Amino acid sequence: MTKDLRGIDAIAFDLDGTLVDSAPDIREALNTALEEAGLARFELDTVRAWIGDGPDALILQALREHGLGGSEALRGRLRKSFDAATLAAPLKFGSVFEGIAELVAGLRRTLPMVVVTNKPTQLARAVLDAAGLLPAMAGVYGADAAAQRKPAPFLLQAAARQLAVEPARLLMVGDGPADLLAAQAAGSPAALVAWGYGGHAAVAGAAPAWRVATPQQLLLTARESRAVRRDEETTTTRFF
Questions:
Q1: pLDDT (tens digit per residue) in 183-220
Q2: pLDDT in tens, 63-87
Q3: Kind of pairing, strands 210-212 and 190-193?
Q4: Distance from C-alpha of 25 to C-alpha of 90, rounded to nearest angstrom
Q5: How many CB atoms lie within 10 A of CB 197?
Q6: Which of 14, 16, 21, 179 is flagged as catalytic?
Q7: What are phi and psi of 37, to 5 degrees?
Q8: In this predicted model, what pLDDT tens digit does every residue of 56-67 receive, in sequence order?
Q9: Per-residue confidence (pLDDT) for residue 1, from 0 to 100
């Protein structure tokens, strides 16, 4: 399936599982926090399956796996440790997905880009900086409060306002259900990447998304669509 991006004026990327393979770093930060609280560690595959809803949801899931509900004080202590570990080593164990650096460099000359993520803004900026991707982004929209988290449309709407584009012309590119549902709620088109953490089955309640196999596919489609759009605009100008 190919997608015509002539109607797209900007792109919003999810972060974890879309731009960066940060699961090893998230696991390390979580396990550091758990160990400081005297709790057992979790394996990478287990933690990877929990990624997508931000650190507070991740910590709550870990506590539930330990058979604990977790007091507010404990959750707050774990979150403080998690944040400190992330900021100390934002991308020490993970990496930028193959082809993403080239995608971002190519799109930077074509379309403005932002990051829309359930990771808090400070942590997201640290990861993007460590990945070398931060300078290319026109903005970073992290979930700094529970109500802002995808699938709520809040972050996409905020990004659209800042970019001065209609939500319908802001493409959400992500790897999981929250990305697709947030796009639908905001009235934005969506693309689901094949290399992330969120699975690739149809998402209940979400409109069908463009399935992107590789970063190169997205870059090529964007370039071709913009070239066609420029030709159309030139032709229209000639006649008027």
A1: 999 999 999 999 999 765 567 777 778 999 999 999 99
A2: 999 999 879 999 999 999 999 999 9
A3: parallel
A4: 7
A5: 20
A6: 14
A7: -95, 5
A8: 999 999 999 999
A9: 46
Active site residue 14: yes
Alpha-carbon span 69 to 90, nearest angstrom: 28
Q: What is the pTM of this model?
A: 0.93
212: tokens are 């992107």
